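From the shared-data thread, chain only:
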Amino acid sequence: MQLRKLLIAIGLAGFASAALADAPAVANPAAIDEVKQILHLAEVDKLAVFNFHRHIEQGNLQHPELAVDTDLYLSFLTEEAIDDHLAPIFAKYLSQNYADKLLAALQTPIGRTSTRIELMQFESGEAAARAAWAKLSPGDQRAFNEFRRSAPYLSFVNAQNLGGSEIRTEFDTWTTEVMAARGALARKQLASLFEEEIKSESQDADGSGPALADRITRTGMRSFDQEMRLSVQMIRNTARLSQRIVREDQQLNLQSVLKPENLVTREGIEAGNLTVLTAQNLFAEHRKANEAITAEYERGIDNIPMTAENRQKLKDGNSRQLAELLDIQLRDAERTQNVLELEKQILALCESQLGKTTLQDGIIMFPAGGTAQAYNTLIAKVRAEADEADKIEKEDTERRLRIVESIKKQ
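Structure, as tokens:
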């Protein structure tokens, strides 16, 4: 999916609106560590966090298809990190002399008052800031105005304006890199979980161990995270079904149906018929369960708010994968049905010869008349179908491994 970009300028009360293009840096730029202190004392970092949250919430209301979980999405925007990214830009346009004076002034009572009222203007509005200023004593109001008109403060304002385009670019690049890294990590984790399911058919299928969804990094981008959650749930459901099939196959013991010793007694043949009938019913249940897993995933995708472009792109990719999966499932189903039908024919043949067949050294001895040849032909067909089923299973494993690799490359 397309990573959402943030193009938000930091706003400070009293800053001029015009920014100069290709503005020259000062001859004696301020020390970056000192600028970090200024940014923190002036609460530029806190203003930036507030602005980002406000713009994100507005964007969520206006564009729900691009909505993000604000706190998680912006968790990388700590005040310290913001200072680290902004300080080099401000330092280019703020002289060391003015930085020294501003740093000292910001730590005075009137400097702290200026910062407090400025932050109030952004958090509570212009009226609240004016009301706070009006409560100052006449002397403090004069000192406040003198501070705001001082050369160090105006130089700081000018530095912000001169670096405005660089600040926007810095935040845009930073955000894009963070989101790309989160998305790449989430896909890597999803691919790893898929590999686990392929190799072990899910050791967690009984519900023990950590939930798979808890092992996928959330990015904060809702559509992406919901898509990942659905993919994880599909892996979990498929793994549980695989474990169930293995368990039921072991209990059913379908291999015992064609054991020679079971084909020369009525009890053995009746047990074999019951096993085949049970296998047919279970096979139908497994097919329905697979269809339900796919349908649940597709419904989930349809319910995720996202852009029409991203939804179509996702559906196109899913359609190709599901078409390949459906082809494999149909061919595997045909092999399974063929095996069961052949086993029924073998059981019927052996039942018709009860009392005439004997077992010698593990081999069924049929009376003359071509029955042995018919039996051997049916057994050969069963083996051929089983070999084809093994090839299809290998093909399906290769298909899933290709999906893993494609996830890693996204």
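Strands lie at 358-360, 363-365.
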